[in-house]
Amino acid sequence: MHSFGYRANALLTFAITILALICAIASFTDSFNHPTPFAQVKVLNINWFQKQPNGNDEVFVFLAAEYETKKNALNQISLWDGIIQSKEHAKFWTHTSNKYRFIDQVFVFLAAEYETKKNALNQISLWDGIIQSKEHAKFWTHTSNKYRFIDQGSNLRGKKFNLTMHWHVMPKTGKMLADKIVIPGYRLPEEYR
Amino acid sequence: MGWISENVESIKSIQIRQILTQGVSLGMIVTSALIIWKALMCITGSESPVVVVLSGSMEPGFKRGDILFLHMSKDPIRAGEIVVFNVDGREIPIVHRVIKVHERQDTGDVEILTKGDNNYGDDRLLYAHGQLWLQRHHIMGRAVGFLPYVGWVTIIMTEKPIIKYILIGALGLLVITSKD
């Protein structure tokens, strides 16, 4: 009845149950967390336009992306601050040390979104980045598009489009979170040099 | 040696009735595992609700040996989501992030391009020859939850089958010799 096997089994089962419970609670604390980061994107230049041999339009854009807290806007807290909030929430059961990190990484990407006659939605990632620590949660980048901005067809002249800053929060374990900010009102030029 | 002969004694002393009970309880364990798996399939709507990450192409997010929970709903697939997809002619499904989406106006069909976070280029080289986009039917599910390290058990067992047989043998012996 009280053999080694039984005891080991009971211990293992108990440990796994507790671990699962802790993970579930950690995931649950995410629902108290509503990060409202700030993002601003400028299209500095539409560098180049080309028509591919198969008839698809392609443009090259140069972007300036900013993603952070605006200091004078008190109600806007940065994404990582928001996550620290959830860490605070997690504190009541972990009594965490400073080393404790709830978040593994935040994946941030910028996508151009527009509608054409053929497609109800076109989403094209232009740039992405991985934030792995709080120090890097506030950034400012000047970049040309990392992925090719190619349309399915020939619609990129004078096209209105939105830029959306998406962020996907990947926790150490548990449910993954995602949200976005839509920045409307961009337009590709009619004429290219 | 005493331990072995003791166990041999205990195997010899088992009554038919006890063997039957143990057979039934073994069956219960197997069927309940099957029930949980099938129930998960129903709830998540994905044909494999749990997958193990086998490559480092999504690092630093997902490492080798991490477990992903999948969900397959009617919701449209959007850029940034991590999807698991099957490519024709490849047996092992791939876990990568969606970077481009084109959704048709009339039919609602989607064309998707994926990329691993840790890969330099997009996945067109991984797709079947000449395939430019993934369609809806290639997608097995999107990753919604994440559990680190646990998948190593599976990886070790598939790469070192001897460990698997030893484990199964030991468990079987335990079931046969245990008295309750």
Automatic annotation (TrEMBL), chain A:
The UniProt entry's GO CC annotations, sorted and at most eight, read: signal peptidase complex
Any one Pfam family here would be: SPC22
Report which superkingdom the organism of origin falls in: Eukaryota
Record membrane topology: Single-pass type II membrane protein
Which cell locations does it reside in? Endoplasmic reticulum membrane
Q: Is Transport included in the keywords of this UniProt record?
A: no
Q: What does this protein do?
A: Essential component of the signal peptidase complex (SPC) which catalyzes the cleavage of N-terminal signal sequences from nascent proteins as they are translocated into the lumen of the endoplasmic reticulum. Essential for the SPC catalytic activity, possibly by stabilizing and positioning the active center of the complex close to the lumenal surface.
What name goes with this protein? Answer: Signal peptidase complex subunit 3
Native organism: Lupinus angustifolius (Narrow-leaved blue lupine)
For this protein's source organism, the top of the classification is:
Eukaryota, Viridiplantae, Streptophyta, Embryophyta, Tracheophyta
TrEMBL record, chain B:
Q: A Gene Ontology CC term for this entry? A: signal peptidase complex
Q: What is its EC number?
A: 3.4.21.89
Q: Broadest EC class?
A: hydrolase
Chain ranges passing through the membrane: 20-40, 139-156, 162-178
Q: Which residues form the Peptidase S24/S26A/S26B/S26C domain?
A: 36-142
* UniProt-recorded name of the protein: Signal peptidase complex catalytic subunit SEC11
Q: Which reaction does it catalyse?
A: Cleavage of hydrophobic, N-terminal signal or leader sequences from secreted and periplasmic proteins
Per the record, membrane topology reads: Single-pass type II membrane protein
In which organism is this protein found? Lupinus angustifolius
